[in-house]
Design brief:
- This protein is an alpha/beta fold.
- It has one domain: Rossmann fold.
- Helices cover 43% and strands 12% of the residues.
- It has a seven-stranded mixed beta sheet, with helices on both faces.
- Helix 2 crosses helix 13.
- The longest helix has 19 residues.
- It starts with 6 loop residues before the first helix and ends with a helix.
- The relative contact order is 0.17.
- Adenosine-5'-triphosphate (ATP) binds next to helix 2 and helix 11.
Length: 307
C-alpha cells in the first residue's frame, strides 16, 4: 500500500483480514457497510492535525498500557478514524491482542528500524478491525536497542521510517515496553502526545517522577512538541476502598491532566486478548467497551479542541 515489495504480504493480508472481518463484523449492524476502507463519509481529523501520534507509556509493568493501546485504537477505528498501532514491546502483547502472531510474517518493527531495505508496506498488517493497521513486534526488538545505539541519531529512527506513511492515519498509537530504554526514547521522539495509564494503587506514584523527567528531557533535547495528553486511571477496582482515595488524590495532584474516563477492572478485558479481539468486538455491550468508547471521545475532544 505504501511501497515496498510486499507481494506475498498483501496476499496474506487480503485473505486473512477479509475472512476475519466478515466473521467479526459481517453479521452485526452498527453503521459499517462492507469494507470500511471504501466509506466516503468516514470521520477524519483535519488534515493539518494528521496524524496525532500518541505514545502509551509507563515504565511500571502491568498498568494497562497494552490494554489501552489495543482497545482505544479499536474504539477510534470503529468511530471511523484511520488508526495505526505500533507494537514497540518485544513481548508483542498488542500484536497478539489483535490475533497477529509473527510466524506467518517475516518482518516486524525490528526490521523497519534496523534494515534500510525494509519498507513500511513490508511490515504493516491490516487487522480484523476495519481502518486499523498494525506494525507487529517480535522478540528481536529486544536486540534493536544495541543496533539503534550504534546508529547516528538512533533515537529518531522510528520518526524517520514512519514519515512516508504516516499521513494516511488520523491516529498512531505506540505501545511501549515497561522500561525507559532506546525503544521508548524512539517512541517519545516521534510522538506528539503521551498517554500514561496509572493503576490506583498505593505505589501508583512510584516512578512517575522519573517518567516526567524523561518526558521533559526528550522535549528539551529532540522533540519540543511533546506533551502529556493525559493520565488514565486504569485497572480501577472500586471494591477496594483505598482505590477511591488514591484516585481522588491523583485528581487533586494532576488536576486537568487526568482523563475523566476511568477504566475499571473487568474480566472481559482479561478474556478479550485470549479471544484475540479488542473489547468492542469481543464484548460490545460490556461496561469496559463503553469505557473505551468514552475514552476515545475524550481523546478526540482533547486533540481537536486547541487546534
Ligand atoms: N481493566 C482491566 N481489568 C482487568 N484486567 C485488566 C485490565 N487492564 C489490564 N488487565 C490485565 O492486566 C494485565 C496487564 O495489563 P496490560 O498488559 O495492559 O499492561 P501493560 O502495562 O501493557 O503491561 P506490560 O508493562 O507488561 O507491558 C493483563 O493480563 C491484562 O489483561
Ligand atoms: Mg504491555
Amino acid at each position: 500500500m505504501f511501497g515496498g515489495n510486499g507481494g506475498s504480504t498483501s496476499t496474506v493480508r487480503g485473505k486473512r483480514s477479509f475472512s476475519i472481518r466478515n466473521f467479526l463484523f459481517g453479521i452485526r449492524t452498527h453503521g459499517h457497510h462492507g469494507d470500511g476502507e471504501l466509506d466516503e463519509d468516514q470521520t477524519r481529523l483535519p488534515a493539518d492535525l494528521r496524524p496525532v501520534v500518541i505514545s502509551i507509556m509507563n515504565q511500571k509493568g502491568g498498568c494497562g498500557k497494552t490494554t489501552t493501546a489495543v482497545n482505544l485504537s479499536a474504539a477510534l477505528a470503529e468511530k471511523g478514524y484511520r488508526v495505526l498501532v505500533i507494537d514497540m514491546d518485544p513481548q508483542a502483547h498488542a500484536s497478539l491482542g489483535f490475533g497477529i502472531s509473527l510466524e506467518p510474517f517475516r518482518r516486524s518493527v525490528y526490521d523497519l528500524l534496523t534494515d534500510p531495505n525494509t519498507s513500511f508496506g513490508d511490515v504493516m498488517h491490516a487487522t480484523a478491525i476495519p481502518r486499523l493497521d498494525l506494525l507487529p513486534a517480535s522478540i528481536q526488538l529486544s536486540s534493536a536497542q544495541l543496533e539503534l545505539a550504534n546508529m547516528s541519531r538512533g533515537e529518531i529512527t522510528l520518526k524517520r521510517v514512519l514519515a512516508p506513511a504516516q499521513k494516511a492515519y488520523d491516529f498512531v498509537f505506540i505501545d511501549c515496553p515497561p522500561t525507559l530504554n532506546l525503544l521508548t526514547l524512539n517512541a517519545l521522539a516521534y510522538a506528539t502526545k503521551v498517554l500514561i495509564p496509572v493503576q490506583a494503587q498505593y505505589y501508583a506514584m512510584d516512578g512517575m517522577k522519573e517518567l516526567f523527567r524523561t518526558i521533559e528531557a526528550v522535549k528539551n533535547r529532540f522533540n519540543p512538541d511533546l506533551e502529556i495528553l493525559g493520565i488514565l486511571p486504569s485497572l480501577f477496582d472500586k471494591r477496594i476502598s483505598i482505590s477511591t482515595e488514591i484516585l481522588a488524590a491523583l485528581r487533586e495532584h494532576f488536576t486537568s491532566s487526568m482523563f475523566k474516563t476511568v477504566i475499571n477492572t473487568n474480566v472481559k478485558l482479561i478474556e478479550a486478548p485470549m479471544a484475540q479481539q479488542p473489547i468492542i468486538s469481543y464484548a460490545p455491550h460490556s461496561a469496559a467497551s463503553t469505557e473505551f468508547n468514552r475514552l476515545a471521545e475524550e481523546v478526540v475532544n482533547l486533540v481537536t479542541k486547541e487546534n
